Sequence to fold (485 residues):
Amino acid sequence: MMKIEEILNGIEVVSVTGTKNRAITGIEFDSRKVKKDSLFVAIKGYKSDGHDFVNSAIASGASAIICEILPEKPDKNICWIKTGDSAKALGLAASNFFGNPSRSLKLVGVTGTNGKTTIASLLYRMFLQLGYKCGLFSTVCNYINEKELEATHTTPDPVQLNSLLSQMVDEGCDFAFMEVSSHSAHQKRIAGLKFAGGIFTNLTHDHLDYHKTFENYLAAKKSFFDSLSAEAFALVNLDDRNGRVMLQNCKASHYTFSVRTMADYRCNIIEQGFEGMELKIQGEEVWTRFIGAFNASNLLAVYAASELLGAAKKEILIILSDLNSVSGRLEVIKSPGGISGIVDYAHTPDALLNVIDTINKIREAGVHLITVVGAGGDRDRTKRPKMAAISAEGSDKVILTSDNPRTEDPEKILDEMETGITPDLKRKTLRITNRHEAIKTAIMLANDGDVVLIAGKGHETYQEIMGVKHHFDDREELRNALLLK
Fold:
């Protein structure tokens, strides 16, 4: 429990009606979760407005309300706090309520379109192997030390986020690594958190269904770097032209990394195959179990951040050589006959292009690439034809299939994907809506030595159809299909 006066520390309050000298049992922004003596924060959300549910929250026992608009006749038994930004207030209130846990460990945020999961997860594994207790917030899973917790969002809501951070502190964690999504930055879920560092990977076509324009998407990412303190570090990828944009007006210490140009941290690929690649990082050679230039960039970011957090160069390189790829990220599954099945989470045009380019640089003459790809429903529709075009141009054969159609008709999604296929590429394009059949067909079409890429879902173990999640794991499907070959 905590008094309202303490919870409001740092929040820009316009007015307070009622006593602040009362104890609050919890903070909620969902009126359905409100209990006796809760503080309810009314947020103007993407789909609904929390102000419409204030009466419901009071009926459920809320004794204090943070809002941007006061009712005409406020209940005198309630403490009303008016602020200009409820979303920001929620983050600050949650941090205060849980004792500002981000100040008791070193929290590092990773943002960008691609690479967030890989970098955050590898940093978590790196510092565990260095002997520290760590926490992780990722798309795949959350961890408190080595205790696994289900992840429902890339970045949790402020209440859940600070609750988990508080548990990490209680468990003695020294570090926490977090994927910072553009949604979370825009919705100010990270307000009130103290970051020891921020990492920028890249910025490409994604989430325009939410942000509407690329400029808005960029601004959401940049807002994270604008919030870093002078004591933090900002580490950005110079191979993306938006890297320097992130550093503009950023108070944190600036550091850069690159696999193409001069930067504070440099890396080159010496050689690579499907088993891994040899890199030269800061003049030192190291063999890794990863492939692709984008993974060289990810590993370089991990190396740089580890050094900035105080780890020794030699120890970092030793651990880098021992790390495995993150689940569903260029995960290779081979058949006894030599077919290489690859599962990857690539669900944006840029990520898909990177994966296909990587495979094409490694595969030998006479080895064919068959790509199975779809596009998610209720998401950015403009990327659908682009992803189909990239797949067709870079592969010997493409099978367009269903991804997570959600509430959309999968046939209509495939219709939109097909608009990206030019007439000359249609001859090598198949359309099989059932994802199980599409994967099975791809393996049947492959000869020994060929490569089959299953793109889009990666680590996911479900397929969402009309709001219902059905068990579906690309890796399981691939293994089963390979056994039948």
Observations:
- The chain has a mean pLDDT of 95.
- The CA atoms of residues 389 and 420 lie 5 Å apart.
- The radius of gyration is 24 Å.
- The first helix runs from residue 4 to 7.
